[in-house]
Structures are given as C-alpha cells and as structure tokens.
Amino acid sequence: MNNEEEKTLKNNAFKVWAVFATSIGLVMLGILLVKIGMDGMHRLSLQFFTSLPSRRAEDAGIFTAWVGTLWIMGTTALIAIPIGIGAGIYLEEYSKKGWWSNFLEINISNLAGVPSIIYGLLGLEVFVRLLHMGESILAGSFTLALLILPIVIVSTRESIKAVPKTLREASYALGASKWQTISMQVLPAASGGVMTGIILALSRAIGETAPLIVVGALTYVPFTPKSVFDSFTVLPIQIFNWVSRPQAEFLVNAAAGIIVLVVITIVMNGSAVLLRNRWQKNVKW
Amino acid sequence: MAEKCEVVSQTGMEIAIIEKKMETRIEKQHRIIGAEFMPDENLSTKGNVMNKIETKNVQCWYGDFHVLRDVSISVEPNTVTALIGPSGCGKSTYLRVFNRMNDLIDGFKLEGDVLIDGKDIYDKNIRVNELRKNVGMVFQKPNPFPKSIFENVAYGLRVNGVTDKKLIADTVERSLKQAAVWNEVKDNLHKNALGLSGGQQQRLCIARAIAVQPSVILMDEATSALDPISTGKIEDLIADLKKDYTILIVTHNMQQALRVSDKTAFFFLGDMIEYNDTKEIFNNPQHEHTRNYVGGRFG
Amino acid sequence: MEMNTKEKIIEGLLFACAAICVLTTLGIVAVLVIQSVQFFSEVPLKDFLTDTQWTPLFADKHFGILPLLSGTFLTTIIAITIALPIGLTTAIYLSEYASNTFRSTVKPVLEILAAIPTVVYGYFALTVVTPFLQIIFPSLSGFNAISPGIVMGLMIVPLISSLSEDALYAVPKSLREGSYALGSTKLQTAFRVLIPAASSGIIVSVILAVSRALGETMIVAIAAGQQPRLTFDPRVPIETVTTYIVQVSGGDVPHGSLEYKTIFSAGLSLFVITLILNNISFFIKKKYREQYE
Fold this sequence. Notes:
The structure holds three protein chains of three kinds.
Chain A: H1 3-40, H2 46-50, H3 63-94, H4 99-113, H5 116-130, H6 137-161, H7 165-173, H8 178-207, H9 210-214, H10 235-243, H11 248-282
Helix pairs in contact in A: 1-11, 3-6, 3-8, 3-10, 4-6, 5-6, 6-8, 7-8, 8-11, 10-11
Chain B: H1 2-37, E1 53-62, E2 65-75, E3 80-84, H2 91-97, E4 108-116, E5 119-120, H3 128-134, E6 135-138, H4 149-159, H5 165-178, H6 182-185, H7 198-211, E7 216-220, H8 228-241, E8 246-250, H9 254-260, E9 263-268, E10 271-277, H10 278-283, H11 288-294
Parallel strand pairs in B: 3-8, 3-9, 6-7, 7-8
Antiparallel strand pairs in B: 1-2, 1-4, 4-5, 9-10
Chain C: H1 2-42, H2 45-50, H3 66-97, H4 100-115, H5 118-136, H6 146-169, H7 173-180, H8 186-197, H9 199-215, H10 218-223, H11 241-250, H12 258-292
C-alpha cells in the first residue's frame, strides 16, 4: 500500500469512527427516552399528578412535587432575574477596566464552576441557619438563585455586547441619560438574548437536586406549600427518593416522574434554541 | 540596483553549488517520494504534452454565480505567467483551479478541461492530495503553521509519509536555501515560525511549498501583504525558481507582472480578455479593457 | 440635579447586584472554612489526609478523606476517558467534515443531552447501563464506579465538543488552506495543524469537563453506592465526596455535631480542587483570547 492509499484509508476510517462518536450521545438519548417511556408511560395518569406521596407505590403521586417545583421556580426567577440582569448591566456598561472588573470577572467565572452541591452547603449555613429561613422554599430559592446567577449574568453581558455602539450614540445624541439609554434602547435590543439566557438558567435550576437535598428538601412533605416559608419537595428530589427505594414499583413511579421532568427540560431548552435562532435572524447588526 | 543583482547572482551560485552537493541525496529522495508525485500512468493523455499546463473552455460557478467563462490558456514549462485584472475578475478562482482548492468551497462547479502534463486533473481517478503535492501554493497572507520553522518546512514531507530524519533535515535545509531565507533562520530553526517578520514568513511558506518537490507553483498575490524590500526579495526568488518550476502568479501590481512574468493573462468580469507575452500585453494591448487596465485607468 | 441623583442611585443598585457575586464567593469560603476549622479542632489534619478509612457515621469513627477522594477521582477518570476521545472527535467532525445541515441539527440535540437533569442520568446508569454491563461482566456489583462513570462521560461530551469546536473554528482558514495545499488529508490537517493551534481552547474544555465531573452528584449518588473505599477497582461500590454530602444531608444528623461538620470539610476539599482547576482554565482562556486578538 503506498502512502496515498494509506492516507486516504486513515481519513476514511476516521470518518467512520467520527460518525459513530458523534451519534453515540444521540443514541444514548434515544435509548434513555425509549427506556423511560416503556417504564413509566403507563403510570402517567391524572391520579399520578394529583396524589400525595405514599408508602404504597401505586397510590403515590407527584402532586406536592410539581407544586413545590412551581413555587421554587417562581421564587428563584424573582430573585435571580433582576439581580443577574443588574449585575450584567453593571459589568458591561458601568464597571471600568481595572483590577476591580478583573476581580469580578474571575469571581463570576469561578462561581460558574463551583459544584452545585457546594451551593447547597452555603444555603444550609447562611439561609437555613444564619438567616433563620429554615428548610423553606425561600431558603431553597435563594440557594438556586445564587447557583444560576452566573448563567444569567454571562448571557446578559453577551447580549448587551452585541448591541451596536451606534444605537447608544444615537440615544445619547438625543440628550438621553446613561440609564435612559440602557433601559430604553440597549436592554430592549438585547432582550432576545437575555430571555434565552434566563430560560436556560431556569431549565438548569428545575433539574437541580443536590443543593436542595443539602438545604433539607429531602423530607416527607404530605401537603402543598401555602407560602414561601413552608417546607417543600421538588420533582427531581421526589424522583431521587423513589429511585433510592429498593422496591421495583417505585422505579416505575421514578420513570413516570422522569418523563415529566424530561419533557419540561426539552420544552424549555427547545424554546430557548428557537428564541435564540429567531433573535439572531431578526437582528442583523 | 546593480548591487542587488550581484547579491542575487551570488545566492544563485551558492544554490548551484549546494545543489550539486545534494544531487545524490535528491536522487534518493526522488526514489522515495518523487515516484508518487507523478500522475497515474493509466490516465489517458489529452492535449499537447509540450505544454505544462493547459485549460480548454474552463467554466466555473459558485452556486448560481458564474465566476469564469470559457478560459483557454496553455503554459509552457519553466515560465512565469501572471494573471492580472481588477478585483472580482476571477483570476484567483482560476489560479485555484490548478490545485483544486476551489473544491473546498460548497457549491463550486467546474466544466471544461484542465490539463497538467497532459493529464486531466479533474478526472475522477485523480487523487486530489497527490495533485496538491505536485502543485504547490503560496498564499496572499503568509500562513505559517504555529510550529517551529523546521516543522513548517518538514510538514509536507511528514504528511506525505516521509519518516527518514536525515532526508527530512536535508530537504528542509535545501528548501530554505532555495527560498533564500536560510541565512536568516538557520540558527533558529526550532523557534516558532510566527516570530518571523512577514517577508521571512512568506519565504518560509515558499520553502514549505517547494519542500515536497512540486513541478508547478501557484502564488496568490504572494507579496501584497509585504513591504517593498521583502517584495523585491520574493520577486528575485521567483526569477530564480523559474528554472526548476512552472510558476503562475496572481498580482494586483502591474509593475510586478512586468518585472517577473513571461506571459500575462488579463481577466475582466469572469472573462479572459487577452493572453500574450507580457511585453505585448503592456506595450501593445489588443483589447480596449486591457489598455485601460494596464494604463491605470481603472483598478 | 434630580436626574443626576437618580442616575447615581441606579448605578449603586446595579453595583450591589454585581457585589452579590463577590458576597457569594466570600460566603462559600467563609461557611466552608469556619465549619472546617471547628472540624479540624477535633480531628487532626494529618488523620484527615492520611487515614485510609472514612467512617464518621459508625461507632468506630475514622476521618480519612482519601477513600472519598479516590471514589471521586475514579468516576472522574472513567468519565474523561470516555468523554475526551468522543468529544474531541465530535468537535473535529462537526467543524471539519460535517455539512451545515448536519451540524445545525446535531448541535441543539447535543445541547439537550447536556441539559437533561442528572438525576435522570442516575436512573439511566442504574437501570440500563449497569444491568447491560453485568451481562458482559457478571461479577459487577449493582452499585459500581464504571457505570455512572460512563454515563457521566457521555453527559459531558457536549461540554468538550462545543468548546473544542469553537476553538477549532477560531483557527484561521489560511492555515487549513496551507495544509491542504501541501497534499494533506482532512485528518492530517485536523491532527497536525488544527488541534495544535487550538490546543489552549481544547485544554480549557477538558479542565472544565474534569471540574464538572468531580462535582457531579446525582449520577454517582444513585448508581455508584455509598461505601467509602480506597480502591481504583471500577467494579465495586464506592462513595464520592458529593454522595457523602447528600447521604448526610438526607439523614438526621444534628446541627453542630462532628458528623455535621464532616460535610463541610469534605466540601472544602472538593471546592479547593475545583477552584484550582477553574482558575487554571480561566487564565489559559485569557491568554489564548489575547493571542488571537
């Protein structure tokens, strides 16, 4: 075999391996979807959505879990969105180049890389104990809000950065103040990207399990929360709870819960991708 | 000017001596890698074998955009041919026809015959990689790989299966000498090539191209990113390389075409308007567009 | 004047938002350090670092972090062994070989792969991958390091592939052309020119993936077991740092007890390791950005 043939052969062999490598993740996703569909689809019924947790697998449902998830997501969004956007605006529009902005930058990059369970330890000591929130929705939401803050900040900054200077200049030239320019021109122009970031951040929060276990959400909660000071459980924790039990019937419940969780995740991520594509298409700077 | 010529002829002598010394090694190299450079013997031969390069009614498209219409040219071996014309006239596309670089662009389509040594290089039995070894290319902006100077020149040998260390080292040295950059880099062969000046980088890229022993060299505005002194060095080099290679250059610089080329082809809006001896094109253009262009009336 | 005051107040509020990030970091460090200091006043640091057993919840208490670290590193090594070749190959394929339509279909699906909650992957490791591996290796325990390691590896493939693809994409086109013009194949161009040129970006992606795998919790908590064990045998149950924290948090350990403090000392170990990795990647990224601009 001469060198040319060998080169071509290697290139083609690599292509075969590459198609395999690229598709293996997709294959896993396929198997995963089929598996949870087969295991849990028949368990999905109105009863499953409206029942409280129970010792008997066939009576148990995810009522407290999805209500808890709604509470947690709502509260987390209320905390994380304004702070995240505010911090993003500050970093992109106000902070001057120098040690302070460098420090903030390293800081955010580090926060993005801190394992989520460490946020749980922070929440446990600061929100649950120090600020006496107890094992409440509020404590859980603050914990998750801090966890997703870096995602919101980074996407806000990226979207603001994409707004052209000419738009700002046009606004200043009409006598607008800095904040008027930002709130009336820059933010609306960046809104598509900011929204995408928020959806992705919340989709991350909805699946987070470990930090909420650490702040004490892995408890038997036989009622739905009435306020942010009540204790709670969420969908992924209910799933973890069922997966951890030895009886096979509970695995069926876990699979059914997983279907709900996966559908929510795919819908949220799908809409984020669509939103991003539409935003990028409509806005040609 | 006279001084410069002397320097060049000295360098030329030097190269001649070195080449003599290396003759045996080069022969050996031909046996190892040279054999593969020859196009497949089984391919049918069309056209005049006396011509190194020949195109017949070449048409090119990018998607629906018709970039080249009906270009027919023949190029004799060991000559320099300049392709000139205003931006967007198709001259770069035409240059890239000869090493099939256009194939990398989605939607590219070619009709007509492109012959090198009488063989159709768009024949389905042609291996593109093999063709590209035989047809070297130097680009508009120097594009050394982010590797050492030595590894840049050795790259073409390595990807073509040469493993003999001695042969690689000899070829690197010979190529750098032939590209007139050896004296400037010989003490820093293992330093990163990105540390060289633009002119040195471009001569390194020429060394990289000739290391794999092509028979044709394509230069796509190879001096447009360089200062006048570096440009002068490369023009001298082109004149020098002519005895071993057939060279095609694309240039925006009329004076350069006049200085270095034997023949010139003038392109305008996808048509080849005029092709003749360089002197004729500049002194006695037949076509009005050519007259306007070489006269500097548009550009 | 009034306008100016308003502007100042707004700037102050925005500053406060940014300052929350700094407070968060300070909070994490403070919480971990304060609890750990109390922990180390009762357990000598030497025992923590050298004892080969971790049994804080048993009557015979040992506080050696090594078994938890070995479990963490074992699952991480397995995950990276899977994710690096697959992720890098995917990146090369998507950036150099694949058609635009293929790329724009596959990339969002890969993003979804990375977005699925890890508790789901834990279920997948436990109920699909482990039983499958048990067919091939009958001696495999129901809880083990290999199955969650593999699933974690596939989960972090998108992390490596998307960052590496960006790095490959940023390599100037002229280098590709230069390489093709010398007769190289796409494969040779990718491995000899593009990967070396994009190496810093690829290294960053791998460091981030390692850091992610070290901190991953639910997959290992569900499928790797809860038995701290100083071993690199992937077939037996182990326990990672993260699983231990989950295990204690889910139980009834009284606040202020030594057992309670163990989760902070374990957390501090994990935090320090990931902090170092994240900072290395941050500085490589910064240097590499300057190189290209």
